Amino acid sequence: MYKTYSYNDMPKPIIRHNEEPPAKPAPPPPAPPKKREEKHDGILGGLLENIASDDLILLVVAFVLLADDCDDKLLLLALAFIFFSEKF
User: Fold this and answer.
1) pLDDT in the model for residue 53
2) How far, in Å, CA of 25 to CA of 20, rounded?
3) Would you say the C-alpha torsion 58, 62, 68, 74 has a positive or negative sign?
4) CA-angle at 58, arms to 53 and 59, nearest 5°
5) Distance of alpha carbon 85 from its chain centroid, rounded?
6) Residue 70, SS3?
7) Backbone phi, then psi, for 20, in 5-degree steps?
8) What is the arithmetic mean of pLDDT over 66-87?
9) What does the pLDDT look like over 12-56, one tens digit per residue?
10) Fewer CB within 10 Å: N-end or C-end of the chain?
């Protein structure tokens, strides 16, 4: 009922002779050269160019707090620190 796995009971590896080794996969094709994106020097000078969704959420929260006359200046400083910590 129980099978023991002692040194004598271990299965033997199958060794096949006269077989060709597996073919090596083809190397991936070279990537096309990337085109440089033109930077738009508009009114903001590219200030909003690299804003991600989490940055946008931080800005909205800070704006809502400022519009609601938030008295907690430390909270606003913490939000500003989090926003600018990714930039530097």
Assistant:
1) 82
2) 15
3) positive
4) 95
5) 18
6) coil
7) -80, 145
8) 89
9) 777 777 767 777 888 888 888 877 665 555 555 555 666 778 888
10) N
Q: How far is CA 37 from the centre of its chain?
A: 22
Contacts (Cβ under 8 Å, ≥6 apart) of 82: 58
How high is the pLDDT of residue 63?
92
Tell me how far apart the alpha carbons of residues 63 and 80 are, in angstroms, rounded to a whole number. 11
pLDDT of residue 75: 93
Cα–Cα dist 70/78, whole Å: 13
Length of the chain, in residues: 88
What burial letters (b/e) apply to 1-32, b meaning 16+ CB within 10 Å? eeeeeeeeeeeeeeeeeeeeeeeeeeeeeeee
Tracing tokens 């590896």 back to the chain, one arrives at 13
